[in-house]
From TrEMBL:
Species classification: Eukaryota, Viridiplantae, Streptophyta, Embryophyta, Tracheophyta
Xref: Pfam families: Pkinase
Membrane-spanning parts: 36-56
MF terms in GO: ATP binding; protein kinase activity
UniProt keyword terms in alphabetical order: Membrane, Transmembrane, Transmembrane helix
Protein name: Protein kinase domain-containing protein
Gene Ontology CC entries for this record: membrane
Highest taxon above the source species: Eukaryota
Coiled coil residues, start to end: none
Chain ranges of the Protein kinase domain: 109-409
Amino acid sequence: MLFLINNVNVSVSQPSPTSNFEVAEVKQRKKIGPGLGVLIGGVVGVLAVVILYIFILSRRRKTPIAPVDKDVWRHQKLPAWKPALSALSKESEILKVSIEEVYAATNNLVESNFIGEGTAGKVYRGVLSNNQINVAIKKITDDGFGDTFFREIKSLLHMRHPNLVALVGYCENKSECFLIYELCPNGNLSEWLYGMHFSLLGFSSIFEQQTSFAQLKSSINSQKTGKDKILSWTQRLEIAIGSARGLWFLHTFPDGCIVHRDVKPTNILLGTNFEAKLSDFGLSKVMNLGESCVSSEVRGTFGYVDPEYQTNHKVSAANDIYSFGVVLLQILSGRKVIDMNMKKPMPLDKIAKSVMKKGGMIEFADPNLNGEYPIEAFRLVFELSLLCIGDKRKRPSIQQVTVKLEEALSISMRMKASITPSHTPDCIVFSGY
């Protein structure tokens, strides 16, 4: 057939005087006339093209087409964490939410629903339509979003504790990943120490009950920004205790110690009654039972990372103790990790150590507390925070930290109870404890 097709092609495109086909064609043309000969030549050309096309098509059909192995394709194309996530979701009751539901819940991630930004991505307030619950939805945006996304789900999947933010569900597709948490309506500790946005508490009731415009307006007017809204001394202690209990739970987890690696005020969320909830487990590291440390690249936030960890790259529970010590210093002083208001900006831990040497501990206290705290309790927490950021070998465990903070709260409550209006100077109001 191939020879015949080539023959036809040759006869059409390159006529040869010696060809039998052409001699017959010339004789026929003399009989039937030149017009009909042209017509026949055209038909032959078209037939040649059609035959060639059929031949090529038949050759292609003879080549077997291997069936697509969907499983092989999936495992080749998808990163390793996706099959692992699929297995995890089957083992638990975690809610998998569609991408359409996420965008509907957040009104297409509208800016007015933006409530903060963590290490791995932006967080938006939303309402899930299936059960009408208020949630916080984090869109993972960092470069290694897949690993961060899976690590956080794996960390929170089987963990339930009053002082850890609860994971409600997740959403993932080819290009986007979302984590869905319980909503903590009072924001995070950082906002209350250094200036805050509107608390979400006044707005969450819109989705829970009928709220009149007058009530909403009153609620908005009652919200104050900046440092008009101050955490009292006892509130600060309770938040510190709640955070410590959350870390205690992580460090003594039955399956192995979990090191958070990013303890800081923005990752301490505040619930309806200002109960502390640790959040953002994207950098957490799980150690096997019996391990006291593991090697790892340095992760964390500048100012909160243990200097020894930066040097030896050894992850341990002591790293979280250091970070928590810095947080305690911030709770006491209301200062950021680097005080840029000083002529020579200094890290907060160095300021605290300098204050301790000079014996001017009270100067370290947040002016917004207005002196409304027992000196004994303040000293106890201040000295505890210095132990946390000190030599790794002398640092207390998180259990010991919790006990000391509870002792400071007990002292504060006794002092508060002993103060009566008749013994209270007019210039000092202790009701803010």
